């Protein structure tokens, strides 16, 4: 596989020192078997890991954690929740804890550890749709195999199989490049020297992959070289600064873990992550670049990758709660996912970065740049109504129908 890539995010569950507050409260008789089987636990080894998420920005200790081995275990919990008079617990569902503002937390409630289902399934719980455009994955899965560049309507793909871009601002250039498993020390030195020579404070990197099956066929190498040449011929970039690596597919998928280890050694992994994830209109991405990368972030100390992906709009539909920016007009089939993956190295950085995120959002609002937050955290009902737009009434209808007691997903703070 020929690969040019940069850091994509994964996550670890962070823990805090806390104690469960459930005490000796008895469970309804319908849940006694789950408690007896050790699936419904109140010990600190279960509740503390479920009290925080990757963001390390907030914490909330649950009363208990359910480790289901089947859908029937989850059904038993929900039946008890809705059928028991005076049931005191909210219920949330947690996969890998990748959220950043407590979306999977259940303060004083019950957290359902969805990853537990994968331990008893006997194999990967991944189902791919017939058209190959969507994946239904178990809560234990990570998105190492995520593909945001979708196939064309005829089922074929473009010249590359995976595409993302990175932006390096100010002092983040050297540290950002060094933190990847792709660039050698010599590569980093050349890129940093080029930036210094040109006196630039923003460097853009485009990373793509081309998958192929070698299988002893020497002709594949020729085909790959030809495709790479045709792709590079169509791009404008600094001559001599195209970097190519040929690695096994499994190594490419595991690249994040390699970078995670590097960040762990630097003490930059288990820290607060005030991330800002946005979907931005394609027609205004240059304005976003000017106002954010070459504006607000100038003169700041950026710790963490800044990543952009082109995303096909037709991967989303009205049945999904994920919101995309308004259409720009004709042929607006792509928008950009912009991930500003900041890390707060010191306690003071948390407030500074949160204020910086608010400033970025205000800039976009004032500039009229169409955007939607991905995994937003709003605390005012009006913000949620504005976020969901025309879908809001349908979302309220579904909530009233399937969760009339407002017991599910309190950490989302949409209805609680």
UniProtKB/TrEMBL annotation:
<dbReference type="GO" id="GO:0019139">
    <property type="term" value="F:cytokinin dehydrogenase activity"/>
</dbReference>
<dbReference type="InterPro" id="IPR050432">
    <property type="entry name" value="FAD-linked_Oxidoreductases_BP"/>
</dbReference>
<dbReference type="InterPro" id="IPR016166">
    <property type="entry name" value="FAD-bd_PCMH"/>
</dbReference>
<keyword id="KW-0732">Signal</keyword>
<dbReference type="InterPro" id="IPR016164">
    <property type="entry name" value="FAD-linked_Oxase-like_C"/>
</dbReference>
<keyword id="KW-0285">Flavoprotein</keyword>
<keyword id="KW-0274">FAD</keyword>
<dbReference type="InterPro" id="IPR036318">
    <property type="entry name" value="FAD-bd_PCMH-like_sf"/>
</dbReference>
<dbReference type="InterPro" id="IPR016167">
    <property type="entry name" value="FAD-bd_PCMH_sub1"/>
</dbReference>
<dbReference type="InterPro" id="IPR015345">
    <property type="entry name" value="Cytokinin_DH_FAD/cytokin-bd"/>
</dbReference>
<dbReference type="Pfam" id="PF09265">
    <property type="entry name" value="Cytokin-bind"/>
</dbReference>
<dbReference type="InterPro" id="IPR016170">
    <property type="entry name" value="Cytok_DH_C_sf"/>
</dbReference>
<keyword id="KW-0560">Oxidoreductase</keyword>
<feature type="signal peptide">
    <location>
        <begin position="1"/>
        <end position="18"/>
    </location>
</feature>
<feature type="domain" description="FAD-binding PCMH-type">
    <location>
        <begin position="58"/>
        <end position="233"/>
    </location>
</feature>
<protein>
    <recommendedName>
        <fullName>FAD-binding PCMH-type domain-containing protein</fullName>
    </recommendedName>
</protein>
<dbReference type="GO" id="GO:0009690">
    <property type="term" value="P:cytokinin metabolic process"/>
</dbReference>
<dbReference type="GO" id="GO:0071949">
    <property type="term" value="F:FAD binding"/>
</dbReference>
<comment type="similarity">
    <text>Belongs to the oxygen-dependent FAD-linked oxidoreductase family.</text>
</comment>
<dbReference type="InterPro" id="IPR006093">
    <property type="entry name" value="Oxy_OxRdtase_FAD_BS"/>
</dbReference>
């Amino acid at each position: 596989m020929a690969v040019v890539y940069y850091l994509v995010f994964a996550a670890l569950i962070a823990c805090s020192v806390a104690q469960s507050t459930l005490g000796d409260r008895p469970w309804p008789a319908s849940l006694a078997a789950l408690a007896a089987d050790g699936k419904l636990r109140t010990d600190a080894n279960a509740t503390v890991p479920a009290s925080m998420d990757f963001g390390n920005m907030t914490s909330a200790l649950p009363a208990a954690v359910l480790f289901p081995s089947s859908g029937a275990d989850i059904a038993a919990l929900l039946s008890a929740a809705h059928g028991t008079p005076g049931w005191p617990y909210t219920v949330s569902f947690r996969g890998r804890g990748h959220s950043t503002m407590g979306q999977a937390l259940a303060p004083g409630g019950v957290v359902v550890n969805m990853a537990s289902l994968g331990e008893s399934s006997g194999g990967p719980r991944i189902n791919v749709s017939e058209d190959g455009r969507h994946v239904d994955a178990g809560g234990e899965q990570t998105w190492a195999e995520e593909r945001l560049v979708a196939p064309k309507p005829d089922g074929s793909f473009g010249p590359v199989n995976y595409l993302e871009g990175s932006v390096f601002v100010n002092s983040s250039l050297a540290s950002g490049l060094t933190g990847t498993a792709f660039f050698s020390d010599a590569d980093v030195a050349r890129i940093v020297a080029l930036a210094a020579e040109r006196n630039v404070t923003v460097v853009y990197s485009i990373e793509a992959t081309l998958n192929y099956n070698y299988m002893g066929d020497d002709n594949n190498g020729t085909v790959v070289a030809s495709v790479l040449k045709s792709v590079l011929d169509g791009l404008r970039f600094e001559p001599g600064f195209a970097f190519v690596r040929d690695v096994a597919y499994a190594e490419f998928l595991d690249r994040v873990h390699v970078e995670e280890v590097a960040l762990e050694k630097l003490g930059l992994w288990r820290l607060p992550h005030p991330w800002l994830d946005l979907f931005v209109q394609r027609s205004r991405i240059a304005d976003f670049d000017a106002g954010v990368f070459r504006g607000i972030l100038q003169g700041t100390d950026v710790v963490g990758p800044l990543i952009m992906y082109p995303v096909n709009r037709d991967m989303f539909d009205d049945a999904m709660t994920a919101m995309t920016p308004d259409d720009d007009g004709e042929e607006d089939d792509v928008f950009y996912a912009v991930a500003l993956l900041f890390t707060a190295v010191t306690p003071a950085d948390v407030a500074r970065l949160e204020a910086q995120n608010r400033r970025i959002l205000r800039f976009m609002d004032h500039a009229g740049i169409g955007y939607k937050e991905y995994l937003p955290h709003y605390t005012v009902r009006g913000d949620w109504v504005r976020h969901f737009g025309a879908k809001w009434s349908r979302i309220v209808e579904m909530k009233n129908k399937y969760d009339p007691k407002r017991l599910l997903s309190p950490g989302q703070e949409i209805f609680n």
